[in-house]
Amino acid sequence: MSESYLTISLNEVLFYFTRAAFGVEAPIGLSEDFARANMWISENGFDPSLCSLKALDNLDSQASSLSIKFEKTKAGGHLFCPEEKLLSSLEASSSSVDWVEINSRVSELKISNVDSPFLVVSALGANKCNGLKVLWTDQDKNQFQVNLTDNEEWEVLSSSSNPIELSSNADVLISPLEIGDKSYKGKNVKKFKLAEEKLRVLHNGIKVEENWQAIYSYFSRCLVKSSAESRASGAGAGLVDTD
Prior knowledge:
Number of domains: 1
Distance between the termini: 36 Å
Number of helices: 8
Structural class: alpha+beta
């Protein structure tokens, strides 16, 4: 792929990422949730293909699994994969949103061994789950805290300058956010204002870099190959406006 990277729209994120997830055999509901989370990632100025490709690769190679179990704990709840695999962030994301909404955001949720923690954050953000703190330490010992303050503002506090979207393989803890709660105060802090970032994206589009070709290859698995049989069954565009 050339150095002149592709620019896409939010609607194209929804279209391509839904089908990319379906291309690795994620159920259609999870695929749609995955795409909406990637729209939120895009609206905040990130390349959605960075952390999402890792999650798709893990499912495709069976390094991760959609299999998930829940158990109650004294502090709240615990989600984990019953297999000896990473828990796919596609499943962890949707399950964490369901848990937060049902439990009114008053207790903790631990999610064990998630492959792409930022996708969990993005699902919470996309579903307007605010007033939450999301904590994890990844496989490279980088610590992250995301404060989802409200529907318009959020911040990342981290122990290093490593990109949050590349953070992988971590136990994630979601809990209510207390005023002034900054576990990593004095470290790297980045604040986001969704309205400003989204306006910039609407004007300039979303740049997707070298990982886009791999995302597109997963999307392409959903395409029906052209043949006499496929055309006879209705695949493809019509020949005239009334088709």
